[in-house]
């Protein structure tokens, strides 16, 4: 079975990508084949009108797709990749392999797919589920300009895309944007708890915290001003916001705490990638 795009794995992130492609990504359902062995997930994916198969054995081995997207968990990726190695004598241009498996280095794909395989490693984050993610990608030396453009198109269907030239930076990307949504969710929790501590009812505090964080995020998204400028715009000298920022911007305040947090996530990403 031939396709322009083969999606390996239809979990949350794979499903988000698929929805983005079929929506604003401009890819027709008939151009996509999804490999998903889990029956429940396969049925859900099939409702999009794409072809869903349970094994790569059902793919047309003589006709390569333009791109194979690996959206399986990092714990299983090593055992999956080799099944998609381009067979000898395959017709047409070789595909580009696009992986969103966190912490899985380009070298693993090159080892299992062959030294000439064109491979892109990408790190999206969970807001991709609502089309507001950001993905950072890095390509090996075999990836051509057209393949870069194709991968950018696929990833932009769920948000922004940035490219880097040094794979070693992917651990820092993971520590900042990959894990970053959890930091924001924690901020909502902490704001709500702080509201309760000063006398607000829990339901109201939770509502205020969620709306404040998401609203401020939307303002930052739409504004051309820097975050620093936006902060200054809502801070009157000697006012309530300034009193709070005196605490948050102290030497042991939010910047120091966030720096330690991102550094810890970055180091853990390095450890996981090293096995």
Please give a structural write-up.
This protein is of the alpha/beta class and 275 residues long. Helices cover 47% and strands 13% of the residues. It has eleven helices and eight strands. An eight-stranded mixed β-sheet has the order 3-2-1-4-5-6-7-8, sandwiched between helices. Strand 1, helix 1 (12-22) and strand 2 form a beta-alpha-beta unit. Helix 6 (170-178) crosses helix 11 and helix 7 (180-197) crosses helix 8. The longest helix has 21 residues, at 202-222. The radius of gyration is 22 Å and the shape is elongated.
Biggest sheet descriptor: 8 strands, mixed
Q: Which term fits the overall shape? A: elongated
Strand order of the largest sheet: 3-2-1-4-5-6-7-8
Helix content: 40-55%
The residue ranges in which pLDDT falls below 50 over 5 or more consecutive positions are none
């Amino acid at each position: 079975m031939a396709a322009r795009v083969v999606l390996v794995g239809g979990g949350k992130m794979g499903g988000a990508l698929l929805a983005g492609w079929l929506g604003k990504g401009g890819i027709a359902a008939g151009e996509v084949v999804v490999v998903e062995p889990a029956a429940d997930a396969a049925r859900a994916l099939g409702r999009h009108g794409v072809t869903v198969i349970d094994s790569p054995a059902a793919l047309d081995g003589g006709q390569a797709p333009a791109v194979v997207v690996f959206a399986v968990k990092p714990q299983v990726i090593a055992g999956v990749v080799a099944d998609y190695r381009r067979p000898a004598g395959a017709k047409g241009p070789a595909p580009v392999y696009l992986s969103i498996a966190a912490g899985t280095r380009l070298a693993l794909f090159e080892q299992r797919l062959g030294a000439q395989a064109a491979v892109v490693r990408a790190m999206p984050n969970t807001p991709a589920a609502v089309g507001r993610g950001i993905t950072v990608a890095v390509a090996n030396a075999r990836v051509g300009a057209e393949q870069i453009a194709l991968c950018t198109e696929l990833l932009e269907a769920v948000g922004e895309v940035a490219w880097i030239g040094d794979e070693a930076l992917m651990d820092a990307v993971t520590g900042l944007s990959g894990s970053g949504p959890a930091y924001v969710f924690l901020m909502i929790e902490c704001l709500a708890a702080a509201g309760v501590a000063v006398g607000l009812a829990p339901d109201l505090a939770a509502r205020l915290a969620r709306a404040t964080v998401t609203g401020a995020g939307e303002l930052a998204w739409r504004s051309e001003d820097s975050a620093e400028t936006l902060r200054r715009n809502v801070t009157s000298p000697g006012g309530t916001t300034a009193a709070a920022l005196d605490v948050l911007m102290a030497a042991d305040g939010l910047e120091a705490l966030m720096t330690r947090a991102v550094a810890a996530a970055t180091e853990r990403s390095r450890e996981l990638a090293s096995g």
